[in-house]
Amino acid sequence: MSKIPCLDLKGQHAQVKKEIFEAFEKVYEKTAFSGGPFVEEFEKAFSQYVGSSYSIGVSNGTIALHLAMLALGIGPGDEVIIPANTFIATAWGVSHAGATPVFVDCDADNWEIDPSKIEKAITAKTKAVIGVHLYGQPFDINAVQELCKKHNLFLIEDAAQAQGARYNGKTVGTFGEMACYSFYPGKNLGACGEAGGLTTNHEKYAKHLQSLRNHGSVVRYYHDEIGYNYRMGGLEGASLSVKLKYLESWNNRRREIATRYQNEIKNTKIKMQSKPTWSDGIYHLFVVTIENKEAFVKHLDENGIVAAYHYPVPCHLQKAYIHLGYKQGDFPNSEYLAAHCISLPMFAELSDEEVNKVIEVINRY
Ligand SMILES: *Cc1c(COP(=O)(O)O)cnc(C)c1O
Known about the structure:
Helices cover about 40% and strands about 15% of the residues. By secondary structure, the protein is of the alpha/beta class. The protein has two domains: about 10-245, Aspartate Aminotransferase, domain 2 (3-Layer(aba) Sandwich), CATH 3.40.640; about 245-365, Aspartate Aminotransferase, domain 1 (Alpha-Beta Complex), CATH 3.90.1150.10. The chain is built from eleven helices and 13 strands. Strand 6 (about 165) and strand 7 (about 170) form a beta hairpin. Bound molecules: pyridoxal-5'-phosphate (PLP). The site of pyridoxal-5'-phosphate has 14 residues, from helix 3 and helix 4. Pyridoxal-5'-phosphate binds near residues 62, 86 and 87.
């Protein structure tokens, strides 16, 4: 019997292959490979889905974060507060703009950015906070938003793992100045290729982002500022329009699997991410912690289950940021999570039998 993987995209793609190939055919007929009508069609559908006034497609999620910084005028000498426990790309956006990421710890139980840690990290140089809806669960947006208002900071949502997650019943993506998305193939909404995007309710940011991603140009061959080639491809846009129609049902299936894990995994050695009252997450990942994770992973592996680690090293201890001078012990909750995290199999096409087996094997440990 083959092992149960942590993530397998084959089932999802078998389901949409016909529709996506038909969409690709249309892109071919129009040779609309860079930006163009298929990207615009996706942008329109995605902003409708999120409930934002604008949506801007770009080439990947890291670039979305970089552009967010540029559109907000954040650059050298500025500081941006981000959680220490996130995928490193949250910090790349800040660094690529020439600004400095300032890390803060996460909450010990819900593992999202801890609002009570933010205020101490604010300096005269702080311009923004990037909150990350980590693993697809919204962070405490109201609390972070209040701090941002009080200190006159921008709020950016890193929604790369949270397309369709809801905070107090409202889809994330319009709570801050803008929100950034990754449509990397492994995300809940993933392109056939690399892609990313932003949503915002502010026209001035939308216009600026559209220009920045397109060589700083609104009128072709007239360049108003130094720009970038950060456009989304037409094939990626077309594949995303097809998959967006399925996102709600895929997210719901993930919620169903997560509820089963939460209710039926009874092993007291396992600790799960607590689910705050505001949260209706989309379970991009299902991460648990356990002491001596190597032994647990070996048990899973011997029983045909493949686990993964998200993420084994917190941002502040990455070699790339050694120059910032952080050290072990600075952010105990993030460090604990990094040292003890295991991602269980989580994707919409997991069968009930596979979910049964994951639960049974874990409870037997
Ligand atoms: C995936 C991801 C990104 C980066 O997106 P890419 O499309 O891979 O560049 C940024 N932030 C978070 C939280 C992510 O999970």
